[in-house]
């Protein structure tokens, strides 16, 4: 059996030097678009040890992010890491820092026993919270790196969107929304907000049986919204203003404040974009204050906002969801089940069952006014139907909901000075 490659303080010697592909000079430094230094390529077969003394073997690279690189990994160090590996390792230079913050967040939120305990308490069959398996530091080619071991996932929703004309089916958007509300309820219970929900941070499961499960990843911008039950105050913080991804950042985050309602608002913007392909403020994303002002305008008149995005037919339940988000006070705990029920009722009104299945097709659902005809007594045909059509249930009459429109509350905080006079109440 060939000897293992092990990353240690001595890995810059003979064995590690051989990974420079025969180059006589020092390898050129790799830098991401955001300016962070990327790690030099790690040779497949290197073994690293986490703080719990668990060994992990690194496989091939499967992606490069804004501050590090992601490799396949295995806990079995005796054989090469194959393409079916169930783990990945995120690696960044020790001098960077983003992975350090994310790593500590995962340590508090993503331990398997914590996730499984929550699922048992809430009687959930699944939860799209990624699991954390280990972390540590190592030296390779005389450079120091930190790493984190996570479970492996499949494609992200952004890639799927790009293959479907930047839109997802109504059913899939609402099923994903329900799943993400489950995850938000979990992380909010730990006094964290995610703050960067978007399609590229939503990954479909890799393991068999998780094909219809979406996982919320990348907690690099996650932060505490409270400390031991005491919510942070609503105030302008220039250092954190406009944090997140500008298209989806919540109005709270635009002023540097973070809240649970902010995460729900970000999810609402995502669902809107996935259904109509473009948000009204995407014409000038370089101007953060313009985007903020447009969001304030749209959320002050949600009926006009959804009509602008959907001139033909407004998706059932979307307006009600956004109105509920607007009704929340800055420090108020959301009613997650109410939000899920809004989306479930939207599915039922369009003739779908809440079966949790994700359907990445362009199939057209049965309109709510047309009840699918019974197949009983019908002559059997061999016309192939899409999976989405197979999941259609009986369209049911939608019950009237209470008007949730109310004034926006932010507690008793005084107004804060904002750039260009912008202030969200």
From TrEMBL:
Upper classification of the organism: Eukaryota, Metazoa, Ecdysozoa, Arthropoda, Crustacea
Coiled coil: none
Domain Protein kinase residues, every copy: 56-347
Annotated region (Disordered), positions in chain: 1-30, 359-425
Biased composition regions of type Basic and acidic residues, renumbered to the chain: 393-409
Positions contributing to ATP binding: 90
Membership in a protein family: Belongs to the protein kinase superfamily.
EC number of the protein: 2.7.11.1
Enzymatic class: transferase
Top-level taxon of the source organism: Eukaryota
Signal peptide per UniProt: none
Biased composition regions of type Low complexity, renumbered to the chain: 1-25
SUPFAM superfamilies per record: Protein kinase-like (PK-like)
GO molecular-function terms, A-Z: ATP binding; protein serine/threonine kinase activity
Biased composition range(s): Basic residues: 370-383
Pfam families found in the cross-reference section: Pkinase (PF00069)
The name this protein goes by in its record: non-specific serine/threonine protein kinase
Alphabetical list of InterPro entries matching this protein: CK1_Ser-Thr_kinase (IPR050235), Kinase-like_dom_sf (IPR011009), Prot_kinase_dom (IPR000719), Protein_kinase_ATP_BS (IPR017441), Ser/Thr_kinase_AS (IPR008271)
PANTHER family in alphabetical order: CASEIN KINASE-RELATED
Keywords: ATP-binding, Kinase, Nucleotide-binding, Serine/threonine-protein kinase, Transferase
